[in-house]
Amino acid sequence: MTSIGIKDLYTDLNESISGLKQNNSAVRNARAVVEQALNDGRTAYGINTGFGAMARQKIGPDALKQLQRNLILSHSVGTGDPIPKEISRLMMQLKVHSLGIGNSGISETTFQRLLFFLDHDMIPVIPQKGSVGASGDLAPLAHMALPLLGLGDFWDEHGNKTMPAKACLEKHNLQPIDLQAKDGLSLINGTQLMSAYGAYVLEKSLHLLKMADLIGAMSLEALQGSITPFDERIHKLRPHDGQKVSSENIRTLLVESEILESHRHCGKVQDPYSLRCIPQVHGASRDAIAHAIQTVETEINSVTDNPLVFENGDILSGGNFHGQPLALVLDYSKIALAELASISERRTYLLLEGHDGLPKLLMEKTGINSGFMIPQYTSAALVSENKVLAHPSSVDSIPTSMGQEDHVSMGSISALHLYQIYKNVEQVLAIELFTASQALDFRKPLKPGKGVDIAHTYVRNTIPHATEDHYFKNDISKAVDILTDHSLIGQVEHELKELQ
After folding, report:
1. What is the pLDDT of residues 422-476, one digit of tens each?
2. Catalytic one among 45, 197, 422, 458?
3. Is 45 a catalytic residue?
4. Of 67, 142, 320, 468, which is the most exposed, with the fewest CB atoms less than 10 Å away?
5. SS (H, E, C) the chain
6. Which CATH superfamily groups domain 197-495?
7. What's the pLDDT score for residue 267?
């Protein structure tokens, strides 16, 4: 099977799903083990027993299909806003990839129906909340499985509206299916909500980290900061990987800077930490994200349901569904991303203070104009919100299932908060991006470093220089679009070299 990596997440997943459509022999072989166990009359958890606290209750052969159906219905108790369609699709892809490894024992009929759903963009509507991050993401995955039974809802093509699953199945000339023994448990046991949110954010963070360095370099130039703290010799003496990468990125972006040359001998000894310590702060976040990626890549290439089926006929009950490995690194990632916004907001604040020839609030006629004062308020609000969201969810546990599940990870909460922090960081960095661009206008005719100059020109092609107050929200939205699009980084890397 294709191994899934974060950097090429969507390409790898598409290759995996495509391969499973061509050959799912591992799924069939695992299913044969389950069928043999049923024929032999062996007792196997969740296959012919109850679940959780009812694991000791044996279920007769005539009730096995009803057992699996009831499992999906009873666990479909999620609440809150729906998960975005893109992440719901990712959940299903990761579930199919895990089932395809061949240690779950799902029936081929059910597995093929999931493949059909993906192939036809039939993505279930899944509520965000209800998982405690152990025994798998039970409630969200149960909602993912509901449309197999003709229940629940699918997203429309654009992910804006929903439609009843029954009507959508009829549109494709499909009937609901009967889940076979073990199917329901294979579907809802697993860490796919946590994994999907983690993979989604971490994949985007690889680009965000480059943009954070670029935007930081723009502010450094606009504030006539010193390049000395980015000297390679400094970072060799404290050789954290992320720190070395960020300092090298800044040096690359500032090459051929006229602004740097204009104040090289100005006598200023030190810049504020938000400029001088960019490599140390951005770098620490880089290292944290790298560690999280390593853990999430292991997770999404694992089998995390229960019980697990093995070639020799063993069916073993364990705890691979427990979300603790993810919960810890998702919390760690929350903090890492929140710090990118925290230091960014401080640089935005510096840009407004009127340092070294810049007009206060970055407008020449203030009083009648508030200038860039209020976008910084928004940054401050989002940074403060991130401090609340970054509190580690994984330090909490509330027992469930009558004490059978007496320690849970709460990693699902980590995942939801990580997503919100990421969206807030986008906004904060976007505000710094268009604020730094405004400040750079006042440094003309001197040119900044080549990478910064490319970025400044790119922004100005979309967001004009502001001479008076106007509807700044449009500027922020445009800046977010620039931030999330890979075109700007592509131009910089084409002209200079690939940023790390």
Report:
1. 999 999 999 999 999 999 999 999 999 999 999 999 999 999 999 999 999 999 9
2. 45
3. yes
4. 468
5. CCCCCCCCHHHHHHHHHHHHHHCCHHHHHHHHHHHHHHHHCCCCCCCCECCHHHCCCECCHHHHHHHHHHHHHHHCCCEEEECCHHHHHHHHHHHHHHHHCCCCCCCHHHHHHHHHHHHCCCCECCEEECCCCCCCCHHHHHHHHHHHHCCCEEECCCCCCEEEHHHHHHHCCCCCCCCCCCHHHHHHCCCHHHHHHHHHHHHHHHHHHHHHHHHHHHHHHHCCCCCHHHCHHHHHCCCCHHHHHHHHHHHHHCCCCHHHHHCCCCCCCCCCHHHHCHHHHHHHHHHHHHHHHHHHHHHHCCCCCCCEECCCCCEECCCCCCCHHHHHHHHHHHHHHHHHHHHHHHHHHHHHCCHHHCCHHHCCCCCCCCCCHHHHHHHHHHHHHHHHHCCCHHHCCCCEHHHCECCCCCHHHHHHHHHHHHHHHHHHHHHHHHHHHHHHHCCCCCCCCHHHHHHHHHHHCCCCCCCCCCCHHHHHHHHHHHHHCCHHHHHHHHHCCCCC
6. Fumarase/aspartase (Central domain) (1.20.200.10)
7. 63
